[in-house]
Amino acid sequence: PLVIWGAGQTGKRFARALEAHGMRPAFFVDIDPRKIGRQARGRPIRTREALDPRVHQLVVAVGARGARDLIRGELDRLGFREGERCWFAA
Predict the structure, then answer these.
(1) Would you give per-residue pLDDT tens digits along the chain (90 residues)?
(2) Is 60 helix (H, G, I), strand (E, B) or coil?
(3) Which helix (H) or strand (E) covers residue 46, if one does?
(4) What is the reported pTM?
């Protein structure tokens, strides 16, 4: 299943672009506690602990400056390898 990290404007725009091609994420991941448990584009927003590198294909779509390096470190810790099970779109 496809997962998008980023339930803000960038992630939602990316999801909308995928929907135009018949693809929808299983869920979104975000670190903002105010977003966790809510929905974005009709899909649940979960914590990074919901990610499983053996199961999920992950696209990171976060536009905040400096976020890429922080997220990359977290994904390494979770067992995701960039270019294999995860990609950065923003």
Answers:
(1) 999 999 999 999 999 999 999 999 999 999 999 999 999 999 999 999 999 999 999 999 998 888 888 999 999 999 999 999 999 997
(2) strand
(3) strand 43-46
(4) 0.93
